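Late entry, written up from scratch paper. The run itself happened at the end of the previous shift, but nothing got recorded in the book at the time, so transcribing now.
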Amino acid sequence: MDDVIVIDDFLNEEELAMVGNLSTYTNEKWTIHGSAPVGSTMVPDFETFFLKKDLMDTEYYTSYLFNKIKKFFNYDYKLVDVYLNGNEALRNGSFHIDNDADRTVILYITPWEPAWGGFTHFVKSEKEHMIIPPILGRLINFKSDMLHKAYAYCNQNCPMRITAAFKLKL
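Output as recorded:
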């Protein structure tokens, strides 16, 4: 399987409406989270904190969307964890690896405009980088041990950048 797989329009209109339901994102279950820099030979960046919301008790994510991912990739993944990452404007993550899984799937679930930034940055090697725009409904499936970083939207007038992260074992 490729290091990074990008799938556009993974969600249909009904699914986009379901994940876009703001009541899912506006309750007391958000916690403070950070992605500590790990395993990088690059100059460490600033460790910042962003929001996280556990979804392991949300059947729509643990069953419906997880089964759609398994069917799409024709692989019997095991779900380790699923949660939302919420990057408020100007609150970037740090370069890190996901050492709790074999594959990580990120689903972009909030609107996006090119001027907002909000990219996911992958480092394949010191000279080889991949930048993925957070287009609504886009899914990326990547090797969890790949160095990566989430960038928040770049202006305080932008909405929060929200992604669903699925941690999977092969």
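The domain at 4-169 is CATH 2.60.120.620 (Jelly Rolls).
(Scratch paper discarded after transcription.)
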